[in-house]
Backbone:
């Protein structure tokens, strides 16, 4: 402090003191606000636990009335997600198996009933493939189908180089 006094001829330290007392003032105001804030949580009393639906008391950002409820909720959410994924996977695998059964060679044309009788689900597929002409094939993994009119479907097996599981794909 004494060095500054000498350098700034006494003005600088006075400024410093002025700033620091000002900022400490602001700080105490800020702290005062935070301390008094829990009053705001009062209207949140009507908030309900996401698990059991009971009214929640306490902090405004609470979502559950207890740890037990939070665990219940998260466990249920996880198992729902797992079930959904499992169900969709099963549908896709079933679709794939049905096309596979109906496509002993690489290609086949079948009536819609051949697919639907086996439980084919037309709402689920893994991807689409659009040809240069704009024809859209629907694929369940490497097996695809194309509606060709009059309730007939053209079935294909994709012979991709990156899918080596099927083995020999040389003849096309
Ligand atoms: Zn609860």
Residues:
């Amino acid at each position: 402090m004494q060095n500054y006094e000498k350098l700034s001829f006494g003005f600088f330290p006075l400024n410093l003191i002025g700033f620091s007392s000002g900022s400490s003032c602001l700080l105490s105001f800020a702290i005062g606000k935070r301390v008094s804030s829990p009053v705001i949580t009062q209207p949140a009393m009507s908030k309900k636990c996401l698990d059991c639906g009971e009214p929640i008391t306490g902090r405004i950002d609470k979502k559950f009335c207890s740890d037990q409820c939070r665990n219940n909720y998260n466990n249920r959410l996880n198992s729902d997600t797992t079930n959904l994924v499992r169900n969709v996977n099963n549908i896709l695998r079933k679709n794939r198996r049905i096309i596979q059964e109906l496509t002993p060679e690489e290609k086949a044309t079948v009536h819609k009933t051949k697919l639907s009788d086996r439980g084919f689900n037309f709402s689920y597929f893994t991807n689409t493939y659009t040809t240069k002409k704009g024809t859209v094939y629907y694929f369940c993994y490497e097996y695809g189908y194309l509606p060709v009119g009059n309730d007939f479907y053209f079935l294909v097996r994709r012979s991709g180089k990156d899918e080596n599981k099927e083995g020999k794909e040389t003849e096309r």
